[in-house]
Amino acid sequence: MAELAGGFIMSKNSVFVYSDAFQTYKFHDRHPFNQLRVKLTYDLLQTLGALHDSQIVAPRLATDEELALVHDTDYIEAVKKAGRGQLPEEVALNYGLGTEDTPIFPNMHEASALLVGGTLTAVDYVLSGKAEHALSLGGGLHHGFRGKASGFCIYNDSSVAIKYMQEKYGVRVLYVDTDAHHGDGVQWTFYDDPNVCTFSIHETGRYLFPGTGNVNERGQGKGYGYSFNIPVDAFTEDESWLAAYTEALIEIADFFRPDVILTQNGVDAHYYDPLTHLCTTMRIYREIPKIAHQIAHQYCNGRWIAVGGGGYDIWRVVPRAWALLWLEMTEQSDISGRLPEEWVARWQPHAPVSLPLEWDDPENLYSPIPRKAEITEKNAQTVMKALHPIRSNKQRLNL
Known about the structure:
The protein has helices at 36-48, 64-67, 73-83, 89-94, 108-127, 157-169, 184-189, 238-256, 282-299, 318-329, 341-347, 372-398; strands spanning 2-3, 9-10, 14-17, 56-57, 133-136, 173-177, 196-203, 227-232, 260-264, 304-307. It is of the alpha/beta class. Strand 3 (14-17), helix 1 and strand 4 (56-57) form a beta-alpha-beta unit. Helix 1 (36-48) crosses helix 10 and helix 8 runs parallel beside helix 12 (372-398). The termini are far apart. Mean pLDDT is 95; it is low at 1-11. Keywords: Acetoin catabolism. This is Acetoin utilization protein AcuC. Pfam families: Hist_deacetyl. GO terms for molecular function: histone deacetylase activity.
C-alpha cells in the first residue's frame, strides 16, 4: 500500500484499464450511449488523487479469433463491412446493425474490438496474478448476441471474456449483473453451461427492454440451476433493491463457489436515469461493490474483474457511481462530502444539467413512492422464488 496526495491509500493490487480511444465507440451525438462518461469518471478519480498512473493499463484490440469464441465469423465480417460503409442496408438489419439502437458508424469493428480487448486485458491481469482486481469501464455490453447486435451492444465483451477465461485458465466464473436491463446476451451464451453461473438483478421486463430475465429462467440441460434472475418491480427504492441483491448474491456465491467473479456494473437503476423506472440513489452504488469485493476474497482468492454497462445520466450519476466502484476496489471507499471543486468547475460548462456537488444524493431526491410496501413485498417474494432451488437442495442435504 502507498499513500497518495490527499491522504488516500493506493492499493497496488488493482488495475484500471483505460484509453481515450474508448470514446471511438460512438453511434452519434444524440445517442444515449455516450462513452464520455468513462472519461468523466477517469478525470474525477485523477482529480481526487485516487487513481495513480502506475495503476492505469492500456487496452488492446481483441483478435478475430477471440471474438469468434462467442460471435459468428459471418457476423464479425458484417460488422467490419458496416464500419467501412460496404454492408447493404437489408443485410445489416438482419444482423441488428443500422437500427435505432445500434446505428452504423465508421470503424465500428475496431471500436467494438477495443472494448472487448479492454475486458480481456483486465482478465489477463487478474488471472495471470499481476493484480487481484481489474476494472475496465469501457466494457459491460451485455446485450450482444452470437450473430446479432442488440441494445447498444455490438460485441459482447463479458461473454467473450468468460469463454476466454474458460479456455485459457480453466476457471468457474460467477457473472453478476446489476444493470437495470437484464443481462440477456451473457445469460443465453452460457444457459447450458454448469461452469458459469449468471445472476442478473434488473427492472422487470414488463416495462423495459429486453423483456426477458424472468425468475423462471434457470438454465437448460447441464446448465439448469445455474442461471438466476431477480426482476424487481418498477419504482423499487434503495432498501428493497439492496435487500434483494445482498440476500441473493451471498446465497448464490455460497452455492456456486466460483474461481473468479466478473461483475457488470450498469448504473441505470438510479432515479435520474432517463431510460429506466427505478428509484435508487447513490446509496446502492456504495454497497454493490462492497459485497462483490467480499465475495471475491471469500471464494476467489481476491480475483475480481469489473466492467461498466448501462448508465445514461452521464453527468450526475455515472461518474460518481463508477468512481465509488474503483474506490471500493482499492480500499478507498470511506469518502463523503463534496466532490472535488476543480472537477465540477472543469465539466460544468459542458454539462446540460447542474452537476452534483456531493458524493451522496439528498434525502429528498424524489417524492415518496405510494406503492412502497407493495413493491417491497413483491420483490421479497421474487427473491424467494429465485433462491428456492438452492434452499430446497440444502433442506434435502440436511435431511
